[in-house]
Amino acid sequence: MTTTKGCACCEVGVLGRRGLLTGASALGAAGLFGSARAAERPFRIDVHHHISPPTWLEAVKKMKLDNPPMVNWSPEKSLEDMEKGGVATAMTSPTTPQLGFLPAADAARIARESNEYARKVANDYPGRFGVFAMLPMPYVDESLKEIAYAFDTLHADGIGMMTSYGDKWLGYSEFQPVFEELNRRKAVVYTHPTLPNCCVNLVRGVPEVAVEYGADTTRTIVNLIFTGASQRYPDINFIFSHGGGVLTAVAERLQIQMVTTPPYVGKITHAQVEHELNRFFYDTAQVANAVTIEALAKLVPTSQIVFGSDFPYRTAAEHVKGLSLRFKGEVLRGIERDNAARILPAIRPV
Description:
Blueprint: H1 23-39, E1 44-50, H2 54-62, H3 68-71, H4 75-85, E2 87-93, H5 104-124, E3 129-134, H6 140-152, E4 158-162, E5 164-165, E6 168-169, H7 176-184, E7 188-192, H8 208-226, H9 229-232, E8 237-240, H10 247-260, H11 270-279, E9 281-283, H12 290-299, E10 305-306, H13 316-324, H14 329-341
Parallel strand pairs: 1-2, 2-3, 3-4, 4-7, 7-8, 8-9, 9-10
Antiparallel strand pairs: 5-6
């Protein structure tokens, strides 16, 4: 049986290969099980759920950075998907590219209008939507102003960021004032991958979403840890999309090679790397398959895994089905709701 790190209850949370149903009957049973779960009273929290505020969408379309799911999004479509997947509350955030392609003044204006729109959607459907506010990053002064407005006026649940901005990742010193303020506020910071300047059109015929999104998520995790930034911001609850990207594939390099060779030998220890990896949160969007989610559950405690659907690019129901095949009991309930509720105090109990 596969086991997970963390508390004793987690050690029976992942179903081993022998415990999985097999054959045609298994597929039928899994389908029925998934349907039955979705038919229950919605209780899941989806931390990876995209919204398309009108003025932001207009700006993205003008730059020809839009795509059909983004353009065709609506609150009603979100609610329909949430019902099918048994999601009680979706934490909304615009997807990549957010606002880094705009001048500072335009980015600040559209961030404000987008966050006000997200709050209006949440108010129109009480309890169904939360707000991960968008910042006009990489502009620091403008972002500090929007942090204050988002939390103090709009009562946002957290901040939604990109993993990088141009050629700068989240642990860079240029962004230190932003993260110091977020740490002071004990904020939730949800991150979504994007394309850094370095890594566009690298491999002919391979879209960036196939590899680069996962790589950029891991780049910012590594950057936060090895610059000491994440240790300086212990009160920020970071959520990383897609199970941390390619983190499970490179974890041993971080745990052993990076801490035993220059320039980090003697500066950061294996224990410090483990501590940071184990305190971050990782969502399930596009990783609810046996290979990736089981590897993640061996790397970090299952208490740090939270439900994400990546709607409108994927559906909640397919993630519910994938997770139900691999976790059970309190561990599954934690992934689907309780782990996120622990860091989102505005979420209502169900």
